[in-house]
Design brief:
Order of helices and strands: HHEHEHEHEHEEHHEHEHHHHEHHEEH
Number of helices: 16
Shape: globular
Largest sheet: 11 strands, mixed
Radius of gyration: 21 Å
Helix content: 25-40%
Strand order of the largest sheet: 1-3-2-4-6-5-10-11-9-7-8
Length: 500
């Protein structure tokens, strides 16, 4: 591993701006590492050397002409493969979209291009972002660089695997119930889900439209802040896009001060059901905050008990509607059955061949929940629980600035360990789901090694809607407390880095 590939995005940006390294040199270093190691990690579904180097060359030319496009000008990035790109396939981890080249870029991709950030490739994910381990990708699971026999989280395990394995300095993910934060926790990286609507969803292949949000996967809180500043902002193509800017997350990080910070520990997410090492790391975070001068209190969010059940009715219902477009007619795979190929039979054959088991499971569940006679009992009741969760959070934020919880109940489990147990898999998101149901921002920051196997854990920070700056403030404070102890980001301690 070179000094370049072990650097943070902020450090690489400084190298480029001071002309100590070019974007072409940096991009080449990551491409070489990716092409050497991706067979082991399966972080990427598509590596785009020629386009990435062309974009890097253009970034260097712009800088030479005195035209820096952004604070991350020339820094290469990985993009989750459920965001449309006109110059690379977009599969969303599914056979039904294998080889599909979209006719337009996602707004986030457009912003990355405008910021002169070369796109290294498209990262692996659970099919249509349905999963917590990347094991439901039609193209095989990604691997966790801390232990290649373990999962890197999901659905965005490819992005977290790429960043923690230093196959990318920074990446884009999407988070519907924890798909950025959970992978960050189990790979020792930083992952942020912005306020719903802060980042445009135009060009994101939808899973559940009222829950999906795009955000950064990074080495540090500052890197995440730099990227969120690049990709956020109003987009007329997205009707749910917030009309007003949330301000600069970088400024929130730079001005972070623990004085007066009030932190809430969620009663329902701080005791039972968490691995002993995860709980110990979380208790250590609380102790560090108290010692540093933060006011820490316990808050009660009783409706959180029903969050997972509500989520797994709302998400499948929206997913069954969103995936109806994959009908064998307009785009994607078409499978022709034997005999009389009516549209109904072609559609059935295509979906049978193109969709994997988890996608089929959720479509069936969602269609059932929306069916006549069951809508009010299931989907309607779940939406009422969603409102109760929002009210619980609103009441909590009247008392504190931010909430903290463990991000995940356990460290990374072994590949294959839970793949046949959907309920166990769904419970991985027990701490992250409430943020999506309420539309509030959430972030995971590394807070130690939580198991005898040397696997990392993360602490989750939640803030009120449209107060992402408060989340970044608290995350930066927590990160600084640990960096003072560790001397470097936790990712620098990944044991497989040199082997990889």
């Amino acid at each position: 591993m070179t000094a370049i590939t072990s650097s943070t995005a902020a450090e690489l940006a400084t190298l480029i701006q001071t002309k100590k390294a070019s974007s072409v040199e940096i991009t080449t270093a990551f491409l070489d590492r990716m092409e050497s190691l991706n067979a082991k990690t399966n972080s990427y579904l598509h590596i785009d050397r020629s386009n990435a180097l062309e974009q890097a060359k253009r970034a260097d030319q712009q800088l030479a002409a005195g035209k820096a496009s952004s604070p991350l000008h020339g820094v290469p990035i990985a993009v989750k493969d459920n965001l449309t790109t006109t110059d690379a396939p977009t599969t969303s981890g599914s056979k039904i979209l294998e080889g599909w080249i979209p006719p337009y870029d996602a707004t986030v991709v457009t912003k990355l291009r405008q910021a002169s950030m070369p796109i290294l490739g498209k990262t692996n994910l659970d099919e249509f972002a349905m999963g917590s381990s990347t094991e439901f990708s039609a193209y095989g699971p990604s691997k966790n660089p801390w232990d290649l026999d373990r999962i890197p989280g999901g659905s965005g395990g490819g992005s977290s695997s790429a960043v923690s394995g230093h196959l990318a300095p920074i990446a884009i993910g999407s988070d519907t119930g924890g798909s950025i934060r959970y992978p960050a926790a189990v790979t020792g990286s930083v992952g942020a889900k912005p306020t719903y609507g802060a980042v445009s969803r135009y060009g994101l292949i939808a899973l559940a439209s009222s829950l999906d949000q795009i955000g950064p996967v990074a080495n540090t809180v500052l890197d995440a802040a730099l990227l969120q500043d690049v990709i956020s902002g109003h987009d007329p193509h997205d009707s749910t896009s917030l009309p007003n800017s949330l301000g600069s997350m970088v400024k929130a990080v730079q001005a972070a001060d623990i004085k007066g910070l009030k932190v809430g520990v969620v009663k329902q997410l701080s005791s039972d059901g968490f691995q002993a090492g995860v709980k110990a790391c979380f208790d250590d975070t609380v102790a560090k905050l108290v010692k540093a001068g933060a006011e820490v209190v316990e808050v009660d969010c009783p409706s959180f008990e029903y969050a997972v059940a509500a989520y797994y009715l709302i998400l499948p219902a929206e997913a069954s509607s969103n995936l109806a477009k994959f009908d064998s007619v307009r785009f994607g795979l078409r499978s022709m059955p034997e005999g009389n190929p009516t549209i109904e039979r072609v559609m059935a054959a295509t979906r049978e061949k193109g969709f994997g088991p988890e996608v089929k499971r959720r479509i069936i569940l969602g269609t059932y929940a929306l069916s006549s006679g069951y809508y009010d009992a299931y989907y309607g009741s779940a939406q009422k629980v969603r409102t109760l969760i929002q009210l619980d959070l609103a009441a909590a934020f009247e008392k504190v600035d931010v909430l903290i919880t463990p991000t995940a109940p356990t460290t990374a489990f072994k590949i294959g360990e839970k793949v046949d147990d959907p309920l166990a898999m769904y419970l991985n998101d027990i701490a992250t789901i409430p943020a999506n149901l309420a539309g509030i921002p959430g972030m995971s920051v590394p807070n130690g090694i939580a198991s005898e196997d040397g696997l990392p854990s993360g602490v989750q920070i939640l803030a009120p809607a449209m107060q992402d700056d408060q989340m970044y403030r608290a995350a930066s404070i927590i990160e600084s407390l640990y960096h003072a102890e560790w001397g470097a980001p936790l990712i620098s301690r990944v044991p497989n880095l040199e082997v990889l």
